[in-house]
Each structure stands twice: as structure tokens, then as C-alpha cells.
Amino acid sequence: MLTGATPDALKQLGTGGRVLGCDPVSEFRSESCEVKRGNRLYVFSDGAYEISQPGGRTAQLTDLIQQINNPEPSGRSKLDGLLEWARATRGQSSFEDDVSILEVEL
Q: According to the model, what pLDDT value does residue 92 have?
């Protein structure tokens, strides 16, 4: 996921394919895009959005994207906000799957 200065500048990156590291002979497509100064790149595992909720629903990628688009209050990091959202979505502080999120400011 690549974000720009405004929420409408969000670009979902992906080429599909197998999970990295599962098959040593897998081939992967590559693509490129223009990245402007000040953009942020978010790389995350499926556990960051496929979160089982107490009511039986499972959060989806669109839910995480919405959270990435939401501005954070001044003085609070986006990553702290995303982790807080994931815990609130789960209804507890532990998760069923790994939750990995990397933010890179370009």
C-alpha cells in the first residue's frame, strides 16, 4: 500500500502469486510505480487485517485500508493507531495470527 499527501492518492500495490518462501522454484512478476517524496509505503501480513471479531465477522483488507486513510491525532504515530485498531477489532490484546506492519516514509 502506498499513500500520498491526500487519502485519494492511496495506491494498492500487488502482483499476486504464491506466498514468499513456500516454494523455492516459484516465479514472481514485478511491477513499478512512481513514488514521490513524502509518500509512505505500508507492507503488512494478512494477520494485520484478517482479524476475527467477537461477533463472528472477520475484518477484511478494505477495513485496514480505511484505517490507513484515517488521519491520526497530532503527536500519535500511524502504526500505534493501526495496532490500537487491530486490538479493538479483535476485542482483546492477543491475535490468532501474526500481525506485522511496516511503514516506510519515502
A: 85
Instruction: Determine contact, residues 38/105, Cβ cutoff 8 Å.
Output: yes
Q: Count CB neighbours of 86 within 10 A.
A: 21
pLDDT of residue 79: 93
- In the block, cell 511496516 appears at 102
User: pTM (2 decimals)?
Assistant: 0.79
Whole-number pLDDT of residue 7: 53
Spell out the SS3 assignment of the chain: CEECCCHHHCECCCCCCCCCCCCCCCCCCCCCCCCCCCCEEEEECHHHCCCECCCCCECCHHHHHHHHHCCCCCCCCHHHHHHHHHHHHHCCCCCCCCCCEEEEEC
Closest residue by Cα to residue 105 from 32, 17, 25, 37? 37
